[in-house]
Amino acid sequence: MAATRNTISGGLFLNAVIQSHTVTVRLPPQVTPALSGAPPRTEAFTGRDDELSMLLGLLDPAPDNGAATRAEPDRPRAALVTGLGGAGKTELALQAAHLARERGWFPGGVLFTDLRGYADLPCHCDVPGHAEQHGLDEGPSHDRAAQGRQRGARPGEVLGELLRALGLDPERVPSGTQDRSRLFATVLDAYAEQGRPILLVLDNASSAEQVRPLLPGTGKALITSRHTLDVGARLLDLGMLAPGAAIGLLARALRLARGDADTRVAREPAAAADIAGLCGGLPLAVRIVAALLAADPARPLRAMAEDLEEAATRLDELSYEDRGVRAAFELSYRHLEAEEARMFRLMTAAPGPDLSVETAAVVADREPRGARRLLEALHRAHLVERGGAYGRWRMHDLVRLYAEERARDQAGPDRHEEACDRLLDHCCARARAAGAWLSLPEAQARREAQARREAQARPEAQLQRESQARREEFASREEAVTWLDAEGRTLVAAVTAAAGRGDRARSHALAVDLAPYFEFRQRTGDWITTALAAVDAAGRLGHHAELAAAMTLGNAYRLARRYDESAAQLRRALGLARDDRARSPVLHNLGLTYLRMGALAKAEACHRRDRRICALAGDLRGRAQAAVALGDALRARRRHPEAAKMLTEAVTLLQRLDGLGLGNPTALMHARVNLALTYLAGRPDRTPTYILWQLCAALAAARDLDDRHAQALIFMNLSTAYRNRCAACHGPSALAWGRRAVTLFEELGDSYHRARALTALGLAAGPEEARRSLAEALSIFEALGAGRECREVRALSRADRTEPPRREACTADESEQVRDWVDDLPHAVLRGDDGRLGDVLIPGCTIG
Prior knowledge:
By secondary structure, this protein is of the alpha/beta class. The protein is 62% helix and 7% strand.
């Protein structure tokens, strides 16, 4: 090997290294073997085109000159590829390094070194009491974490190896890490100045302290790590392969091993997709499966998929010779501090696809800030991922299986069962408090929340509070709904988890308390799932629990349009009710189901009986709700004058209750919509503006309640109401609101009402759009088995609607100002300009 000579002038000698004013480094004429000795890349590499392009864009020397540099002055010279163990970080870096050298960007070669940052680590993370012995409470301090993670190859040792690989005489390599780092940077710069830049690849780094002394001064470097390190590099978080890419990797690996004759992926595409899904897109897992299949060419993919389906043994299956998914995760786990590892294990106590900081704080019995710091540490280790929203976290499916194994091993020291109990208590308390804002008058919900807060503030109660993280109350309806939206999937999973643990009381209570939310958000599937769990749990909890569960399931079935099942459950609930107070809500809901079934006389009878019970009990709120439902039943029976009278009574009564702080904005919204529809069916020509006004007043309530389903229904009815007022003057408005209804129902995933909105749009649109809309509505109704609706749409499709629209309601002397006011009213409401509802521009229009 040719020697490298340093010619020094004017410096200070420190052993064999020099801090000098001028250093001239004479380099060997040939590239040493070490510079071209990077590990080979694999031919099965696939699915990382975007990530590879990003790295190559960073390594490309062309942008370092000219306009590109001016456009990106802070372009880093190093890239850090991070990700979960087995994600393919090293392979990506090697692919980029080899391509960069092939393109002539680094004629000096590639220096590759494995820093062994995760090898041979002692595991203290499972030792009971380890965190307490070190005074840990709310997460690791940065200083202690840094000291504990300087593992693997030491920077000084690596620098010595690199300097020798660069051709430096071993006797001239200084002893100190800092001196070696300076010399290393000098040598790399010298190579670059002579037109032979070298690419440095630092694989498997575990800490910033391990990397910083190795970074070149002006050269470029690729770094891989399971942790996100602060080393001034461009970050590339390597995620999982997309399903198609994972299948492609499996097929490519099999072809490389067995040749083109192995066509199992092509022959069994469904099984290949299942394998990719069970591997979670983790390249290491896919490669292990490919190796197992290659070793047994007679093994069908379906058999492999079936072996992987059992969660308890999946990690056992994902092992081949010296490679294993469990082993890959073990290296990252052993790198954790004790409290981080405990959080990692206890996260498995939280059911559902992800969890919030609040939930993590509950299961770990920590304050939210401490829990957040622990989650962020796990995220830096790529053992958890960020969820769909800020503050939510999730695990890769295979990582969760590994975490569950570790949790079982440490269930006693971690007090895992206590963590599960804490979480269920928390979910029940929060769901009950949130549900109150949806089912009680706002003023009453606010008073009860304040009373509970004051009770908790008393000294004896304060001693019983476990943590601020588990506060139960909400300051407003909006806050309660926001929490329910965020935690909905966790709460559904908690109902099932409680049932699985034999905890019938909490499974039942949580399911019943979630019912108002599921109805509000139209979450039919979740409602039925939890209601069935409640019915199953109620059998041993007494007749009150059975009644509540039967009514909950009956209402869920009604929302799902499973009316016979709904009626059966509600009739069962009625039989369980032992007094009129219990019968009243059951009658109300049974009447609603009968109305949907078309059993109009039964619906009317139920609502009249309910209204009579409420009147005798002095229950004004119940009486108002019964009047709304009764008015709707009378409208369906085409008894429009009676319906209008009943609904007007309901509106008046609900407004009175609102003034007393006992209002029900949802019921008032429904009353206004039903009143508008009653006039639309019974007196369309005499009250067209009044109809629109009531719909807009209802729209203001739907906006305030954030009830998007109600908004969509009102949009659909606005289309009909504008067409009723005057198709000639308000045709564009009728068309616009019809389209908005169709779009919103599609966003909400409500096929039935989307078909209804398409029907309304078909009546407002021009011939071609009307034909398309009605055809699509018919197709949806046919798929849903909605026979009556299919007949109606077919009749509309056959009708001759080629005549130009007539001025049904407008008068010749109506001012343009009035027409503009009418057209703009719903837009004004959505803008929050409720004052427009009080404008008196329509003579003879009775408002309120």
